[in-house]
Amino acid sequence: MSVIIAAHNEESVLGATLDALLAQPGVEAASVVVSANGCRDRTAEVAAERGVTVIDRIEPGKAGALNAADDVAQDYPRIYLDADITVPPGAISRLVAHFDETSRPLAVVPRRRIDTSASSWPVKAYFAINERLPVFRTGLFGRGLIVLSEDGRARFGAFPAMIADDLYVDSQFSEAERVEAADVEIVVDAPLTTTNLIDRLVRVRRGNAQMRAAAADGAIEATVRRSDKWSWLRDVVLPDPRLAFAAVPYVFITLKASQRGRRATNGLDWGQDRSTRDTPSANMERPAS
């Protein structure tokens, strides 16, 4: 297998990510490629200290970083891992094992759990609904880890220069071609404050709009998911009225992000949520899932 990590100013979290990854059975340092890009910190040095392959690009941009790493990586399955995701023990082998099953999926992702323990109450309320949306049970995005078979990676060429790389990968596969591994859980840190959350959602909306425009213009081949604006009510709150308390902050935050997203200028910057990287706990090892 080959593991690709695109990293932009990830010094505070990359060490823990690599240590957990290299402790996985079957993962060797030579099979891990860290593609640092536009970094102003010790991201490349942190990776080099652990013996993995390092690409140090001056130009910022995740798509360019992923493509540069793909040019170096040789083996399959191809694992794309975010620099701030700590992989639990044994997770990689369990994910890769799905390619040996009769169904032969092209893409495998873990379950995700959003950690809101350090977040403000409006952020907790937002994710009480967001985590239960059906789109996050079937989509490849929002997990920080995607595994593709060789046939799956052959489905598309270079990553296009756009923000939503995981949404682009998601658009290349039907639901029958992907699997969510129920036996692997990845923990994703929630933003700490409402402002942090809205900033993150604005970035997501910019990426979605950018991809829709590129698909409409024929610049990329992608099946773009249609937005379901009422799924939060129909699929989450009505079946579980106990979540009605969360509806007000959820709707407010969603509308605010949509409003700001329409005003935002186009761009390819990552718009990282530094609140989950610059806190004292950002580099702490998570308990095994």
SSE topology:
Layout (H helix, E strand, L loop, with lengths): L1 E6 L3 H12 L9 E6 L5 H6 L4 E5 L4 H11 L5 E4 L9 H7 L9 E9 L5 H10 L4 H4 L6 E4 L1 H4 L11 H6 L7 E12 L4 H23 L14 H7 L9 H17 L26
Parallel strand pairs: 1-2, 1-4, 2-3, 5-7
Antiparallel strand pairs: 4-6, 5-6
Helix pairs in contact: 5-11, 9-11
Which structural class should the secondary elements be placed in? alpha/beta
H/E topology pattern: EHEHEHEHEHHEHHEHHH
Distance between the termini: 22 Å
| CATH top level class name | Alpha Beta
Q: What is the helix tally?
A: 11
Q: Determine the fraction of residues in helical runs and give it as a percent range.
A: 25-40%
Based on DSSP secondary structure assignment, what is the total number of beta strands? 7
CATH superfamily descriptor: Spore Coat Polysaccharide Biosynthesis Protein SpsA, Chain A
Strand order of the largest sheet: 3-2-1-4-6-5-7
Write up this protein:
With 289 residues, the chain is of the alpha/beta class. The protein has one domain: Spore Coat Polysaccharide Biosynthesis Protein SpsA, Chain A, CATH 3.90.550. It is 37% helix and 16% strand. Strands 3-2-1-4-6-5-7 form a seven-stranded mixed sheet, with helices on both faces. β1, α1 (11-22) and β2 (32-37) form a beta-alpha-beta unit. α9 (194-216) packs across α11 (247-263). The longest helix has 23 residues, at 194-216. The radius of gyration is 18 Å and the shape is globular.
